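B., you asked whether I could sanity-check this one before it goes into the benchmark set. Here's the sequence:
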Amino acid sequence: MQRLNKIFAAYNGKREDLIPILQDIQEEYGYLPFNALKELSKFTGVSESQIYGVATFYAHFRFKPTGKKHVIVCTGTACHVKGSDQIIDTIQTHLKIKEGETTPDLEYSLEAVGCIGCCSLAPCAMINEKVISRIKPRQIKRLLPKK
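And here's what the prediction gave me:
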């Protein structure tokens, strides 16, 4: 609750603060915890269902924790043509999770996105903020070592 109160202290609790507060909560926790949304409702006077409606409208908000290493695979046209589906399949097999899931130890999570803006380097993935270009299925075990 202390972390949440620190976030709230930067705002007046008005309806127009909702999206920036949601962004700050996700930045702090890595996702939007249910209890944080309940407290946000009390702070802003916006109903929980309305907050949930806003948060689900924007694709960048998450309701589940991501792994320490969040793996994003581009599925845009250039990456798709160059084999991004194989990359995703290889990662899913290697980590034993499906796209949108997190490993039980919270080490890795996998997400497919429409484009990461590196089309000339296709196929691409990102591990946290680091872009991996021209990725090949054979690189997955080295890039994503399991404990």
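One thing to flag: The chain has two domains: 2-57, 69-143. Otherwise nothing jumped out at me.
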